[in-house]
Amino acid sequence: MPVIRDELMQVRASDDIVRVRQMVRALAVELGFGLVDQTKIVTAASELARNTLDYGLGGTTLMEVLEENSRIGLRITFEDNGPGIADIDLAMTDGYTSGRGLGLGLSGAKRLSNEFTIESRVGEGTRIAITRWKGR
Amino acid sequence: MTPTGTSKIPDILTKYRADILTDWTRQQLENTAMRRGVLRESDVTEQSGEFLNAFAEAVGAGNLTDLRGEKWDAVREVLAAVSRSRAKKGFTPSETAMFVFSLKQSLLTRLRAEIGDDTDAVASEGWTVNTILDRLGLFTTEIYQKGREEVILRQQQELMELSTPVVSLWENVLALPLIGTLDSARTQVVMESLLQAIVKSGAAIAIIDITGVPTVDTLVAQHLLKTVAAARLMGADCIISGIRPQIAQTIVHLGVDLGDVITKATLADAFALALQRSGMMVASVKGRS
Amino acid sequence: MERIPILKMGRYLLVTVQVDMHDRLAMTLQDDLTNQIVEHKARAVLIDISTLEIVDSFIGRMLANIAAMSRVLDAMTVVVGMQPSVAITLVELGLSLKGVYTALNVEKGMEFLTTSLSGEDGADAGNTG
User: Fold this and answer.
1) If you classify domain B9-155 with CATH, what class do you get?
2) Domain range C6-124, CATH architecture
3) Which residue in A23, A33, A104 has the most chain C C-beta atoms within 10 A of its own C-beta, making it the best mutation to test that interface?
4) Which residue in the set A38, A102, A108 is minimally distant from C61, CB to CB?
5) ipTM score assigned to the predicted complex
6) pLDDT digit string (tens) for A29-87?
7) In this structure, which of A65, B167, B266, C58 has its CB flanked by the most CB atoms within 10 Å?
8) Domain spanning B167-277: which CATH class is it, in words?
9) Contact status of C99 with chain A (Cβ, < 8 Å)
10) Longest dimension (CA), chain A
């Protein structure tokens, strides 16, 4: 899938979550996403950036603008070298949390995206990618 | 196919440009006699001239096989413009493709006149002309199709917006009468326009009337529930009315939990409840029955 | 330290959230509000989020917490002015903010509070008379 542009950001502190939100918003606005689509992808990014910080102990966020069959999309990949997730199915369950959150981060982010992939290895880290296509 | 460089086509196009253009234009006007009035002679001449220039240049550049390549960009551009304008004027796909096909006759005639003594060359060059023009003809059809699809898409969008009017029933009370089949895309548009109208009008109660909706499946039911939940987060209450018996049965059979959503059988019942909640009532005037 | 201002209007507290809140700021607001409810014997808290462009699960949880905490302190919380796009997203996220009162704008929120709280005053008046 052709990537026409990308931006990499660090997620090390709570302020970085705000920065990720603002960057995703700016990209979504630039790509001409509708207001609801913008809000959905920004919210999903906010959830996952917080997960990267809280559970992954910090990591990176990669934002990529995709173009495929004349449609435009925004893919955001969150990567950390944290403890990893032992049971992904359980982690994806609404309401389940190993921390002090509401347990809506992963499942909610998935519902707010058009595509969602998660890979994790215990002791090595976690990589989650979400994509939202324009106007769907 | 004739090896690049030895083809006589570029020479012929340059040498007989004026003659070919005249022949071709006349041919087109004959073919589209029915369309006279829609298609002006000056337009046809201009479009044909533009095409011939681009075509001569592309052929001259040597590559006679890769019509998708950049050497043919200008040709495809001219063709796309012609196809779009003809699609808009109501031409059929074949009439549109005839623009290119009708060039064959005059081009082949010149070719034969020029190198008629060499039958092998005529056959081979003729084949080249045929192949190129056939492919360009198909290209116009593709563009024509795309243009039509764009029109359909735009109409669908307009229809979607038209078909979801949010009306004000009373101060503080909005109604959204849904008519027709609800699919996911349409429900999303409906949901957003209702919520926007709530913010704009400040109405605290919205009635979603589904009398005109033939069927409700799980997905549609879920969309309705989400709309109600979103409205509540904004500070407005929704009432769903017009639930016909079959739909009530479906909802129960599907196991959809309407939760604490208020439902009423008719829009009138819902309106009465909305008025009551706003602290108003409807009373009959004495002396009339 | 950065803070979100809390306005006192009679026995109501009014908060207008106008910035993209980072998590620490949200936690500070939660602390400040509970302190001020007690300090001013406030009957209600109005939180205006009409300029907020997103509410994620963290801010959503903060709103629910403020509502629950103020309830314990015998005050009502009304969240007003949530934008449609935010509401749609929050529903998709799976958050319904159960137990939080909502209103379309500050004016409607005030109306709602006045109606809800006048019932109590009326009961008091009945007892004395």
Assistant:
1) mainly alpha
2) 2-Layer Sandwich (3.30)
3) A104
4) A102
5) 0.88
6) 999 999 999 999 999 999 999 999 998 999 999 999 998 877 899 999 999 999 999 88
7) C58
8) alpha beta
9) no
10) 42
